[in-house]
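Supplementary Methods, section 5.1.

A reviewer requested that the exact input to the structure prediction be made available. We therefore reproduce it here, unchanged from the version used in the analyses.
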Amino acid sequence: MTYATTNPATGEVEARFDFITDTAIASALDEAHDFYERDWRERPFAERAKIISAAASIMRAESDRLAELIVREMGKLLPQAKGEVELSANILDYFAQHAADYLKPRPLPESPGATAYPLPLGVLVAVEPWNFPYYQLARVAGPQLIVGNVLIVKHASNVPQCAAAFEDVLRRAGLPAAGYRNVYATADQVGGLIDDPRVRGVTLTGSEGAGSAVASRAGHNLKKSVLELGGSDPLIVLEDAPFEPTLENVIWGRMNNTGQSCVASKRLIVVGKDRGKQFLDGVAEKMAALKAGDPMDPHTTLGPVSSESAVLGLVKQVEAAEAAGATVVTGGKRIDRPGFYMEATVVTDIEEKNPLYLQEAFGPVLSVYVVENEAEALKVANAIPFGLGGSVFTSDLERGERIARQIESGMAFVNHPTWTAPELPFGGVKNSGYGRELSQYGFGEFVNMKLVAVSPVGSPPPGVSAAG
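The structure derived from this sequence is encoded token-by-token as follows.
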């Protein structure tokens, strides 16, 4: 593994970055812990929030530059990259604006004199992925820095310039260097950080394998962890869902970020044979019409995937599904052009024995299932090991909400693909991980809800009456 910018649209390496030395990473932890103990946790939260708000303003002012870095490093289409910058800024602002409420002491009326105080834990380690290079950082940095924690961040090796740019934004917003440190670290160095007693928690967004390794190490050291792992979200279409708007949502849900999203609508489940054919034909036509091109060109509708290994893995996955009896309706091949492009792909006739039935396809591959009724739709939706998000499309909102509650996931939407917003808790169940990010729930993941109970002077010990 090396830290490098490899442009997915061309396949060319544009920049390389050295690993951090063991001495430097040890110094980073020394400085982070000292800064937490002597400074950051003692600052008024309003001062911490002011810095985070200033960072949001810088991101908006420099949206074009920051978005271009996303395009160059992981291939996101330019309009979507600009949208990510705005979403990240919104997250920072959200926590800056809500910190006062979230950090209020909470009296416990059932026990007079008892109060829970939200207090920081200390140094946290964050391990983040490449698919949303700023969003993944903002949803950790915003709440945790305002709480009073400090961060050491190991970002994905293919987005080193985005990682450095986000750190630079925080510096210019007024955050001292020890408060947030981006490190080009190895897996062994991250493990060493987790082992150090001064690190009090770890959060990771990534693969099941990475999550298992980090959770195991954190657990061995008796440290809190939050994991956001893979997903293979179902999008259930009921008999009464309007065709055209639902179809548009299916395409957006599957193809946003070229399908490289944990909460992408990876499995379309349609109730009814006739409707199933209608939707299969519709998605195949729209997917085939997407045009590959330069992701910096606003007219491009199909960008590259992130890497050579990603495109090769997707093609192999589709070939294995076809060999096991699935039908590739459209796509399935690598596009013959420079860079890491794959045809937008639709696969159906996926039986339970097919490897794709349980797998996550992290790219422009949509699996389509046609079922007879609601019960079968839920069976297919819940058959997989993942449980991140899901959605239901119907004209009957009450029915849609009922079915959404039965999807085994951390999030479920009615008449909207799974998505994210600062005020919505984000996270999954099953092999998709545990814990939450964003909203008040994410704000509190790395907080010591410290109980302080005050009794009147002269109170007797428990079980002893005042009369003696």
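The mean pLDDT is 97. These observations are discussed further in the main text.
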